[in-house]
Amino acid sequence: MKKVLLIGTSFSAVPIYFALKRRGFHVTVCGGVKTDPCHQYADASIFVDYSDPEALLNAVKEVDFQYIVPSCNDYSYLSASHVANKLGYPGYDTTEITAILHTKKLFREKAAKFGLKAPKVITDLGNLKWEHLPCLIKPVDSFSGRGVTKVESIAEISTAIDVAKKVSRSGEVVIEQFIRGSLHSHSAFISKGEVIADFFVDEFCTTYPYQVNCSNYPSMIPKKIQLGVRLEIERLAKELRITDGLLHTQFMSDQNDFWIIECMRRCPGDLYGSLIERSTGVDYADMFIRPFVEISYSNETTRSHEYYYGRHTVSSQESAVNFSFSPKLQGVELEIVQLKESGEKLEPAPFDKMAIVLIKFTDFETMILVTPKLADYFQINSHEKNY
Fold first, then answer.
1. Are strands 308-314 and 345-346 parallel, antiparallel or unpaired?
2. Which distant-in-sequence residues (6+ apart) come within 8 Å of 58 by Cβ?
3. pLDDT tens, 186-209?
4. Which fold has domain 3-92?
5. 168: helix, coil or strand?
6. Cis preceding linkage at 134, omega within 30
């Protein structure tokens, strides 16, 4: 059996772990939290903080792994890419391309150079004027909406920059045009610069600004916008000459046009792939791992069905000691992935989550109506409220 190292051990990494096992690999998992689910399943475990690229590199050198596979967070992918470029593992872009796709500032610079449809960047802070407002101030290297502020007045700029810098590992920020529209994601699997399979998902941020907590598939986005995004992503893939594999994108649309917000090559978290798999029958996790384990894509991906699914991350605006939560949806199928036990402390979003819920709807109209309001259908009950 060939040995694979899976970098990441949380619940989001579980589908990737089992995709590797179905392919017949011996799977070692790497992660510092011993109680994480992948440690319970794995053939072997390495307890290393993989957010430190050099620590991961040293751990990989000690074992004869044929392949290394990232999971569902930026640290996992960036450290894996560092190791892969040092030791020659397949499935990864060059260090330069990885940095472009995973650093907001570099991505915006390349987007401008290529004429990619993306928000404009305000590079000269000294010339920031009223006509530039509102704008968004972001850390160049954060995720889950952390440190992002919508600025509507000149007086708010200094505070927003301080907030972004505190979250950024590099202490750098990017200031960009604020786009009005709806938020969506596009998961595209690329082979030789062409999109061979892709999925469009509608996304909503209703608990914490700029952190997705509700989503649905299939998407309501018009077909002309889907085609435009697909062509733009293919153009980006060819311009950067990226390797085969997943290119996951978030974009905004006003139903007539679209703007690429950010791209990444890691697997999206919070069981995004399970949403696609439940909806279409496509094994998303298996498609994700193939380039890393040298398994080529087939010419087409068969979708065995199309069901209407929503996904909700149950979270809170305030910290609490978890007691339970109460679903209030009727007439739907619920699959609940519990992440907190009764008695555990639940930190406020975007730093924590209580559960992931997958909801199968009976029809498209109900899915579109209910998904943006899913947070209203799940009540978090704390010990304080019950006793």
1. unpaired
2. none
3. 999 999 999 999 999 999 999 988
4. Rossmann fold (3.40.50)
5. coil
6. yes
Strand partners, 335: 358
Is 182-386 CATH 3.40.50.300? no
d(CA 206, CA 210): 9
**Closest-CA residue to 185 (of 284, 304, 78):** 284
Degrees (nearest 5) of the Cα angle 144, 149, 151?
155
Burial of 299: CB neighbours in 10 Å, binned 0-12, 13-18, 19+: exposed
**Structure-block tokens of residue 349:** 């979003």
Residues 6 or more apart from 5 whose CB is under 8 A from it? 27, 28, 29, 30, 46, 60, 63, 65, 67, 68, 69
Q: What is the Cα–Cα distance from 66 to 79, expressed in whole angstroms?
A: 17
Structure tokens at 135: 């704008």
Cβ atoms of 272 and 311 closer than 8 Å: yes
Residue 352: is it exposed, middle or buried by C-beta count within 10 angstroms (0-12/13-18/19+)? middle
Residue with tokens 């990017």: 174
pTM tops 0.85, yes or no: yes
Task: Respond yes or no on whether the N-terminal peptide bond of residue 350 is cis (omega within 30° of 0).
Answer: yes
Q: Encoding tokens for residue 242?
A: 């990226």
Give residue 189's identity as a one-letter amino acid code: F
Average pLDDT over residues 50-56: 96
Report the distance separating Cα 24 and Cα 19, nearest Å: 9
Angle at 233 between CA 228 and CA 234, to 5 degrees: 100
pLDDT per position as a tens digit, 241-254? 999 999 999 999 99
Cis bond before residue 37 (omega within 30° of 0) = no
Residues in the chain: 387
Q: Which of 287, 244, 237 is nearest to 267 (CA)?
A: 287
Torsions phi, psi of 47, nearest 5?
-100, 85
The class level of CATH for 120-177 reads alpha beta
The residues spanned by each domain of the chain are: 3-92, 120-177, 182-386
